[in-house]
Backbone:
């Protein structure tokens, strides 16, 4: 850099401009550059649409997988009951003992709710479902014990926490046998965890690809405007001033790509809703496919804008600073 432009990086100091005026000028300058970068995209709308399309479709895949994983939890209504613990009480436990047990465990913070099934009710249900009503009538006494169904809280519904709660309940003096389908519960959480990790890995890979694509697009824009950048630096423009239009270009890429991804997810869910309705009808269950709510949309748009800014920042920090008048 020559001695004539040695002080350009610090910018021009205007002593007669007040602080509020500088703030207004800075704000107006940002708006002009943001609108100018949007106009540049419109003038080269074919290439811009291609870049926005790549960004939007890259975000569509992980967003759709995330929505499907979230809906999978709603499809299986029995998932929350998979951690249900069955306590078979001792035959010699009196009604007073049972009431005391119910009062004690109801106060435990690990338990959400309990349901007591008396032995007589269990026997009556067994008669209706088994078809051995006449044979059971010849029994001298009820062979079935009292049963307490314990449903843990959501925090303690995992395999490890549910197993610990089962061992704790087994130590109660009124409890004879405690049962929990741990294997099914562990398989359930393992499948859900695999799905979540798969979404995360795919999202990271696609997001890195988006950053590289936008970075390369901004790099080409900078190289195409090399002569213009040289002239701007010769008349005293700072690097920050020159970089801002390219950063706003990345912002618009991210915002428009996020909106495209949102529209694509809605379209995919609408297209799949008929197939899901047919499957739910076969299982005689009513299921409404939930889409992207407001909070998820804001997160998706924010992430998309962040990717656009990150890709443009990688290019402008390197290539704009390399262009210097000799």
Residues:
């Amino acid at each position: 850099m020559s001695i004539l432009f040695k002080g350009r990086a610090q910018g021009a100091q205007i002593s007669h401009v007040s602080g509020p005026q500088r703030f207004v000028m800075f704000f107006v300058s940002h708006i002009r550059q943001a609108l100018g970068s949007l106009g540049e995209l419109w003038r080269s709308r074919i290439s811009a649409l291609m870049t926005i399309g790549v960004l939007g479709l890259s975000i569509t895949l992980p967003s759709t997988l995330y929505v499907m994983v979230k809906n999978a939890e709603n499809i299986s209504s029995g998932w929350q009951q998979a951690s249900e613990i069955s306590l078979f009480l001792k035959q010699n436990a009196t009604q007073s003992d049972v009431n005391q047990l119910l009062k004690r465990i109801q106060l435990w913070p690990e338990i959400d709710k309990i349901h007591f099934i008396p032995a007589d009710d269990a026997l009556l249900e067994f008669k209706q479902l088994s078809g051995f009503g006449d044979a059971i009538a010849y029994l001298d006494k009820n062979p079935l014990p009292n049963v307490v169904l314990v449903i843990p809280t959501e925090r303690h519904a995992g395999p490890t926490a549910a197993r610990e709660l089962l061992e704790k309940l087994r130590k109660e003096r009124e409890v004879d046998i405690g049962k929990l389908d741990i294997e099914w519960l562990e398989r359930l959480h393992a499948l859900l965890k695999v799905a979540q990790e798969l979404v995360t890995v795919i999202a990271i890979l696609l997001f890195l690809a988006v950053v590289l694509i936008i970075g390369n697009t901004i790099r080409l824009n900078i190289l195409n405007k090399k002569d213009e950048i040289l002239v701007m630096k010769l008349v005293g423009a700072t690097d920050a001033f020159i970089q801002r239009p390219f950063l706003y270009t990345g912002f618009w890429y991210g915002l428009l790509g996020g909106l495209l991804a949102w529209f694509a997810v809605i379209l995919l869910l609408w297209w799949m809703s008929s197939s899901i309705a047919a499957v739910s009808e076969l299982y005689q269950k009513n299921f409404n496919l939930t889409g992207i709510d407001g909070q998820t949309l804001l997160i998706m748009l924010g992430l998309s804008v962040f990717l656009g800014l990150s890709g443009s920042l990688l290019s402008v920090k390197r290539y704009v600073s390399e262009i210097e008048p000799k």
Remarks:
- The radius of gyration is 33 Å.
- The chain has a mean pLDDT of 77.
- The chain has two domains: 27-77+188-322, 85-179.
- Residues 27-77+188-322 form one domain.
